[in-house]
Automatic annotation (TrEMBL):
Domain ABC transmembrane type-1, residue spans: 56-267
Transmembrane parts of this sequence: 60-81, 93-113, 150-169, 190-209, 246-266
Alphabetized CDD domains for the sequence: TM_PBP2
Pfam families: BPD_transp_1
Bilayer topology annotation: Multi-pass membrane protein
The protein's name in its UniProt record: Binding-protein-dependent transport systems inner membrane component
UniProt source species: Thermobacillus xylanilyticus
UniProt subcellular location: Cell membrane
Family the entry assigns: Belongs to the binding-protein-dependent transport system permease family.
Amino acid sequence: MFVLPAAAIFIVFLWLPIAKGFVYSLYHVDFVHGNTFVGWDNYRTVLSDRDLLVAVRNTLYFVGLCLVIGFWVPIFFALAVSELRRFQGFVRASAYLPNVVPLVVLYGLWRWFYDPVGPINAALQALGLDSVAFMTDPDWSMISIVLMETWQQFGSAMLIYLAAVLSIPKDWYEAAEIDGAGIWARIRHITLPSIRNLVLLMLVMQLIATSQSYQSQLAMLDGGPMKATLTYALLIVKYATTKLEIGAASALGVLMFLVLALLAVIRNRLQDKGAGA
């Protein structure tokens, strides 16, 4: 009885739209004159679109950058904060503050940071370096978005890792110190093996989250410059809102759903393994 309201909301606002997405992918959707069954035509349309390969490549590039640049940041900070003997609470709160910044403020703030005459380029010029066209150079645009999202989101992940690190029995560290183990030896032989399953779980969750990213690419650059930030999810949004091809957008969504469902299965197995350990 207590679960029914939550289950009803879950079904109506999540599973029902997913089911409709599968159905709409087989139709030409027209909310005025009615839908027309077109079979696999929507899939043929999106699979023959040149922007699809661009979007897939950009998405993989974005996911890779998030792993290389952003994935290790919260782990590093969690390990560093766990070694603090004072001001640990202040550091935790400071690290989480970027998560509560409204997105509108966040995007405006970082567009100012990345401006040709903004503070970042001013600092580069003060050091005798050339300014960087963060927003107009295709080579820098995706990197700029990854840096922004890493700054905003690492705090919540850091707190999860920190909780795991602090749950490790202190007796292990004391025994290691008696045996002469330094800080790096303790991290390598005690901390990292103890949080290994959590790291794998967070890795899969980040893969799922970053593969669906489109908000920052849309708000900051609208997929530009030269489609350098056109991700797969943003291509779905453009099909639905710009081209008004709901059926084709649904077909793209179904393809993404199948890939993410596979990642979700992997995530659940890792979670079960971690719970068993």
